[in-house]
Amino acid sequence: MRRDVLLFIRKRPYLYHFLRLDSSYYEMIIKDPNSIYELNRIAKEKLKIRFQDKVDNLSNKINLLHTFLDVFQ
Q1: Which of 11, 26, 42, 58 is the most buried (most CB within 10 A)?
Q2: For residue 33, what is the DSSP state?
């Protein structure tokens, strides 16, 4: 595997973790090193660390807090 691809993976702990969970993606990277960007997108989507997922998570927490406050009133 190319050195720049390895550095790309090591600089992003979530991507390294994702590859350890599902090692079948190594084959995709070895065949086409430029697919690392697609893999990065897939990993963020599967691990739910995209900006959209963070906003949804925050929204759920606010709704939960609102529900607790309604119960105590």
Answers
A1: 42
A2: G
pLDDT attached to residue 39? 95
For 65, list phi and psi in degrees, rounded to 5: -65, -40
What's the whole-model pTM score? 0.80
Name which of 2, 37, 42, 35 is nearest 18 in CA terms. Answer: 42
What is the mean pLDDT of the segment spanning 43-54? 95
Cα–Cα dist 50/32, whole Å: 24
- Rounded to an integer, what distance in angstroms lies between the CA atom of residue 51 and that of residue 44? 9
Q: Which residues contact 71 (CB under 8 A, 6 or more apart)?
A: none
